What does this fold into?
Amino acid sequence: MPNRLAHEPSPYLQQHKDNPVDWFPWGEEAFARAKREDKPVLVSIGYSACHWCHVMAHESFEHPEIAAVMNEHFVNIKVDREERPDIDTIFMSAVQAMLGHGGWPLNAFATPDGVPFFGGTYWPPSDQRGMPGFPRVLDTISSAWRNDRGQLLKNADSIENYLQQSSSGTPRSGTITSDVSRQALANLHQQFDPEFGGFGAAPKFPQAPTLDFLNRHVQRTGDSVARTMLTTTLDHMASGGMYDQLAGGFARYSVDERWLVPHFEKMLYDNAQLITVYVDAWRSTRDDRYRRIVAETANWLLAEMELPGGGFASALDADTEGEEGKFYVWNIAEIDDVLDVTGASLIRERFGVTPEGNFEGHSVLEIVATEDELAASHNLRVEQVTNRLDDARQSLKAHRATRVRPGRDDKLVAAWNGLTIGALAHAGAIFGDPRFVSAAQKAATFMLDTLRKEDGTLWRTWRDGEHRADGVLEDYVCLADGLIRLHQVDGNVDWLVEGQCLMDHVLATFGRNGEADFFDTPASSTDLIVRPRTLQDNATPAGNSVAADVLISLSLLTGRDDYRARAVNLLERMSSLMTDHPTGFGRYLAAAERLLAPGYELILASGGAGAIGPLTISALSHPALHFVAHAPDANDNNVTERFPLLADRPMLDGNPTAYLCREGACKLPATSVEELDHRLAEMDVELGSGADTM
It folds into this structure.
C-alpha cells in the first residue's frame, strides 16, 4: 500500500511511495506526530538521479524488517534536496559539523522540534568494513533516545548553536582590487592538476563557477597561467568519459583524476553552466572544439531535457535496470555488430574500447587518439576520418537509443532554468542557431507564467501542474540573471523589467539585518530552525554570488548607486574567502572581475525586440566587452526612465546602430559590423593600457 509520498509531485519522493517505510513529506504533520508519540525524527535527504540513494533505498528502505524498526521507533521524513535546498543546507551543515564530511543520501536524526543531533550519509544494511550497518544505527539511536536522551539533547543544543552562528557570522572584509584576483589565481594554481586539468585530486567535479572566474580573468587580462588552467581543464573534460561522446552533455563528476569514469547522472545545472563556460572560452580562443561541445550539449538539452510546454527537466538518472552507467557503456562485440569493419576499427581506436574495458568489464568512451593519428594509421585523409567517425557515432547513438533509457526527473526548478535560459540564449546568438534562442525564450515565458504567483513571488518547482516549495534566493537571482542575458540576445526589454522586479524582491525580503549578503529564504519562511545562508559556490553558484553579478548589471542599466554599492559591499565582505578558497568562491571572483575591468557597455538600437542581427552577434562574440543591452522603441519612455543607459539611442538613417560607451562617454555610433569591429579594436587598445578600476 503506498505511503503518504504517493501524493507528492517530486519524482524522488515518488520513488519511495511504495516503500514499507511510513514516510512523511516535510511538514507540520510529521513533527506533530513526533511530539505526540515522543519519537525522534529521521530526515532522509536525496535526489532522484543519485546512485547511492538508490542503493540505500533498495538495501534498507525496501527491506521489511528494517522498515518495521524505522516505523516503530521513528517518525520518518523524506526530502528531495532539489525541491527543498534550504532543508538540505541545514541538515548538511549539521552532519558536516559532526562528521567533517557529507554527501547523499543524507540521513540525520532530529528532535521532534526538528533540531538534528546525529547523522551520516550512506549506511549499508549490515556491518561492513568497519562501517556500522543501518539497523545498528537505528538501534543505537532509539536506545539512546529512551535511555540517554539528555546527551542527545545536549548534542542538539550544540548543533543548533552552531547553525545559528553559521547563519549570522560575518567573514573578514577587504577591498576588491587586482590583488584579490591575483592571490586567488595563485591559490588556484597550487591546486591545479597540470596533467589532466581540474583542481585537487579525485573525485573531480567540473567546478563551473571557478571556470567562470578563469574565463573572465583571461578576458580582462589575457593572463597565460589562467588561460592554461582553463583550456587544459576544458580540453580534458571534453575528451574524457565524463562527457557523453555520442550525444553530448556532461555527467555530474568523475571518480578519477583523468575525467574518465563518471558518476553517470546528468544534471541540468552542470550542463547549463558548462555551455556558458565553453561559449566564453570560445570567445577568447576561437577554438572550434569548444564550439562543437556547445552545439552537442545544447542539442542534447533540447532533445532529452526540454519539456513540452517550455523549460527543462532537472536530471537524468545514473542507473538503468539497477546498474550504474549501463545505458552509456560499450563492449567490442556490440560495436562490431553495429558498425562495418572500418567504422568499428576507427571507433575502437578513437575512444579506447578494449576487451578488458575500463569500467566493470565495459568501456566508457574517451578520446585517446586524434583524427590525424587515425588518418595515418588507416591510410585515410583527415576529412575522411572525420566523416566516418561522425557516421559511426550517429549509428552507435541510434543503437544506444534502443536500450532502456535512464529515468528522467522532469520537475522544473526555477534556478536551474534561469541558468539554462542565459546559456542557450548566448550560445544560439553567437553560434547562429535560432533553435537555442527560441528554447530560451519559451522557457522564460513558461517560467514567468507558471512559477510566478499573483503577488510576484516565485515557486521553486513545478511538475505536472503542481507546485510544492517556495522559491529560495538562488531561484530569484538565477532567473533574473537568465532574463537579463536573454535580453542581451533578443532585445526584449520586458526581460529586463522582470529581472529587476525579481532582484528588487530579493532586496526587500532576503536581506540580513543591514548586512550586504542575503539569507537563502525570505523573512516569511517559518518552518526551519534557522534561516540558512549559503555563501559558498558548490555545483551551482551560491545565490549570494549571482546576486552580486545581477546587481552589477542593474547598476549599469539604471545608473543607481545603491545597486552598485550593494554589489561592492557584498564582494568586499567575501574578499578574504575569495582569495583563500577560490574553488568555493569562483562566481564571486567572476563578479569581481567585472568591477576590475574598465567599464565599456554597448547599446544596440534596432527598433525593439526582433531578429538577432549581425551587430548583436559581433558584440556578444567579443571577449572583453563589459555589457550589452538593447534600446527600446523611441517612444517607450517608461523603459528609458527605468533604464537610463538605454535612453537617447536612436537608429541612424533607419539602420540598426551600435553605441559603444564608457561611463557615459560614447564613441561614434556604428551601423555596420565593420564599423563596430573597428570601435571594438579601439577599445581593445585602450583596455590593453588601462588600469584596474572600481
